[in-house]
Amino acid sequence: STVVLVFQAPLSRSPENGESSSDFKFLVQRGDRVRAGEALGR
Amino acid sequence: GSSKGNGDWFLLPGATVATLLMLGVLHGRRMYEDMKVGEAHEKGIEFEFQPDAKSAFLRLLPLRSISRCWGVLTSVEIPVSLRSRVYGAWARAFHSNLEEAALPLEEYATLQDFFVRTLKEGSRPIDPDPQCLVSPVDGTVLRFGEIKGAGAMIEQVKGFSYSVFSLLGATSFLPTIAKGDMQDESSEPENVSGEKSRKSWWSISFASPKVWNPYSSRPMKGLFYCVIYLKPGDYHRVHAPADWNILARRHFSGRLYPVNERATRTIRNLYVENERVVLEGLWQEGFMALAAVGATNIGSIELSIEPELRTNQAKKKFLHSERPEERLYEPDGVGRTLKKGDEVAAFNMG
């Protein structure tokens, strides 16, 4: 089975080019084993 | 007659040996394929989306009937004397951690009871940082990132993406929040009820490149996703990733394709086609939805917040409606309130 999580989170802007450098940071990598309750992102 | 009878004595053992041989070859081939995929991943090589004959063949199989038969089989009571051996064999085959099971193995009457076992107190500490989102399940992170672009697409594998709107359903709050932010800059969040409250004053823009309004007083919002795959041996209960108000539940009966690594590479729109339960609501930063997607062997999704929901039901031939069955949770606009780490659902076999 599979779980897909979709959520809003803060974005900040780097004023010079308006490109989004998001506030929200994932703390995992693809292929990582995770356990319920562990931080996914901050 | 007797000579003919004597000639047949070897048929049954012969057929059994041939079947076991065939299963052994198939399993060996599968292990070889998995090894090749593992080696490729280690080298950073990523296979592209590539439909094949097997995925086309899967479309012809009665997957739901197979799943329901598997459910009947796994709900057969196992004699107490055999339970620890059966569950021990399962744990060795699928790398389950038996030490964490909340009960002694003899207490699990069926394989289904064992599969949906709870864990000993303290086995899954919840990260206390109020700024962090936690994993809702045990599993392997397949993909994650920010959802950009007007189509709001999520990559299934390299070379194929699916729409988040198709995954969550056409009646998802998602478009409302997006529209709300585009049209009405001043909307303040009332209590979360009614159409206006669906508009969040956090804005997510699918338009890209993002236009930054330096005079905007409101913090900008992005939309993010994370896809986690649960192996058969993993702990299969689902927990709240944050403090979360669940306002709506959508159940898509769909199909029950396998969702292993090979299926993600060969079946188009896998998570949009499969049976799934979508829970949607709000967390401290705005919109949050979780899609629990079933599979052939794990076709049932049980909700702690709505125990009466039944999934993986025998398909009524004439009722092939693709529309999801939806429920809005009371009280209106507040829904079901969960703390981070609260149990919200569980996958089960069959």
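DSSP finds no helices and four strands in chain A.
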